[in-house]
Amino acid sequence: MLTRAAALEEIAGQSFEVVVIGGGITGAGVAFDAASRGYSVALLERGDYAVGTSSRSSKMIHGGLRYLQNFDLGLVREALLERQLMAQLAPHLVYPTPFLVPSFAEERRDRKLGMGLNMYDVMATTRVGRSRREMRSSKQEDEDFYWSPDRHRTIDRDEVLELVPSLEPRDPNDAYLFYDCQTDDVRLVLTILGEAERFGAVMLNGAEVTEVLSRDGRAVGVAAVEADSGERFEVEAGSVVNATGVWADRIGAEVADEEDVPRISPSRGTHVLLDRDDLSTGSAACIVPAGEGRHIFALPWYGRTLIGTTDNDYDGDIDHPRPGQDDVEYLLDAVNAFFGVSVGDSDLVGAYAGVRPLLSTGDPKKSVDISRKAELYETSSGLLTITGGKLTTWRRMAKQTVDRLVEREGREAPCHTAELPLGREAHPEELDAPDGVGEEAVAQLAFRYGYAARVVLQLARENPKLSAPIVAGRPDLLAEVVIAARREQARCVADVLLRRTRLGLLAAPQLRDAGAVRTVAELLGKELGWSRKQVKREAEAWPAAAEKAGIDPAAAAGGAARLAG
Length: 565
Ligand SMILES: Cc1cc2nc3c(=O)[nH]c(=O)nc-3n(C[C@H](O)[C@H](O)[C@H](O)COP(=O)(O)OP(=O)(O)OC[C@H]3O[C@@H](n4cnc5c(N)ncnc54)[C@H](O)[C@@H]3O)c2cc1C
Hints:
binds flavin-adenine dinucleotide
């Protein structure tokens, strides 16, 4: 990615065919799709890339088994096809995980769930609705291109315990096993932005759009404010796309009538993370009953156990959603009962909350039942707003938006994103690591950066100090801090700890004070030209940022920092 200074120079006062507002997964997808169809594109992000909902998801690329209950078949089918594509286009970053639904004691296997899983299997196939001849002629092509998970099956007690040994005290009878995919949501956004840039898009974070500019009733650009200087600049645009998720109804009031803009009905979801010594799901994920017919997940993620999520209407501050105390208790109660353990707040290594950009239907039903469908709105000014949807379906949302641009301009510009790889895959064994960089770090780099992991390793080789971990016991390297500033527009300690690495969520107790992040601030300062005073200020700003995001519930509960990682 260009540096911020270079990006600002390319964007401010210039003219583009498309300006995208918002650097979450949706905005990144639109920028990538439009740029790869030949449009000149600029993207402006108010805070940091993925700072909104796109860094706060459950990190699953999935069909969404539970939406089958609502008979949202179109959405599930669409998401399952996207899941297959993502695993194919970004194999280093989107990986299948076995999911278990165990049964215990007198419980009988849930036949309704079995039927649902059958549907899930059928809907995941790329061959639904095709004639035999079509299937035969495209078989070869399909099998080469589409990753496809195994069908669901029932596994016996021994296999359950092989996958999830911690279930032994519960003495499971058997389990349904099916597959879904996992990822790192922020790295997916950054990877898509990287691809957009390869096709010529320019993006800038720390650039808040304050106004949609209009001429003769048409949206013709935006005005924005650059965060460091506070300076206002304008960008001219043939088309303006609002991809601001849960903020979508705050953009463009100056060029739209009330009824033209979507109404967002936010819903908060909380997640907590535990050390695997306290609770491990082994090599699988578990679906955990949470009362009143609800379910949550316990997932292996970055060597921790990720537990989520809740789903409740939310009328608090959408800029800084924090995990709700009730939600944390609800999640912990569910896993304590399911695994027969007793973990509490003070054991948590991290927590976060996100707000879903659900579209208000005017229906008084709770958010769990509101569809995750995406909607594209077009006002008479030509401003396009795309919101709703899921992390998984970003490509479809982007295609829908850019198809509309193409249609209204009468262009010949088909979408290519179903064939364009996202980053370049790298296998850990192909990466040459300098002394001091262990296997776990190399595997994590290959997952996170793909082929570009070589650049991180090269830095660590040139400067052995950078091959040290950012947090003792975790595989993230100091070299990644330098890369974040040099190539990923990181602007502060929180950008590095919450969104380039995910250490703030995985090791919050070890990052409680300014002293713990001093080296991160120094490395950033060296790259970004900070004075000694500013380095100190930036390190001191971290504990407040962590507190605001509520990532360390163990601190409030008096939990000790885990030094072993
Ligand atoms: C708890 C939870 C769990 C989820 N789990 C999953 C899951 O496992 N799988 C899945 O597929 N989906 C999941 N989702 C849904 C998914 O995360 C979201 O649909 C998706 O991330 C929304 O992305 P977005 O780009 O539309 O919004 P955002 O990521 O919120 O991006 C909008 C961006 O616009 C920026 N912005 C706002 N105003 C301005 C302005 N004036 N100028 C410039 N920029 C601006 C914001 O800073 C923000 O970065 C989950 C959602 C939640 C809340």
